[in-house]
Amino acid sequence: MVAKFAIILSLAAAAYAGLLPAAKVVYAESEAPAHYDFSYSVHDDHSGDIKQQQESRAGDAVHGSYSFVQPDGVHRIVEYSADAHQGFNAIVRYKGSPVHPAPAKVTYATPVAKVAYAAPITKVAYATAPVTHFVIVLSLAAAAYAGLLPATKVVYAEPEAPAHYDFSYSVHDDHSGDVKQQQESRAGDAVHGSYSLVQPDGVHRIVEYSADDHQGFNAIVRYEGTPVHPAPAKVAYAAPVAKFAYAAPVAKVAYASPVAYAAPVAKVAYAAPVAKVAYASAPVSHVTYSSPAIAYHH
């Protein structure tokens, strides 16, 4: 009983002194809601590529629209929204009437004309060879003049205007780190443009490119900034087990009446002897008992 009391009292003193281990709790930091705006457009009358899009986000609410001209000339417009409650919703509208292109021109040969031969042109008795050749040539000339001989119809391809367009777009979202942009221009077969983005390590990559019939495709890549490595994530863990050092006996207990000792006290790992008791020669009337000093280490 005395030993249990001493152990409990010692543990209470150690806890008060901050020697017992305590779990460290790390709370996750709340993230700011996502927020961005972006848009782009393309208008190329030569190829008929006409389209645009714009979108905005604030937290879980997204609103945007896009439109383009279909191959039949109809303008399709889509307006959409999405959030955590309503999900994704879109409204689709069409403007204009379908336009069917004219059939392509095909080059072909005129069918062979039917020629009706009349009676012999003239009767020549014993004509010489030059006279006969002259009659044949004269007959062919007359048939050609009358439009009876076939003629090939030639169709020339119409020259196409050189391609020409300009477009650009950009995205800047500080919350997710999505930062990028692109712009491009074309005049005929010459294309010039550039794009840039922020890599995961924080370095800004910039690419400038060009292409034409003579030089082909060429690009120049540049990097700006210094790589930044993120700090390791915080992990919740339990503190290591503390080493306990127990001081001198916790308390002195004075008993008035003789003390009766029962069976030996239970063995305690790494404990000193339970107690030393000094008996006087005269009958025991007063006994002083000191708790043993207990010290152990893990």
TrEMBL record:
The keyword Signal applies. GO terms for molecular function: structural constituent of cuticle. Residues 1-17 form the signal peptide. One of its GO terms (cellular component) is extracellular matrix. Keywords: Cuticle, Signal. It comes from the Eukaryota. The keyword Disulfide bond does not apply. This is Cuticle protein. It comes from Arctia plantaginis (Wood tiger moth).
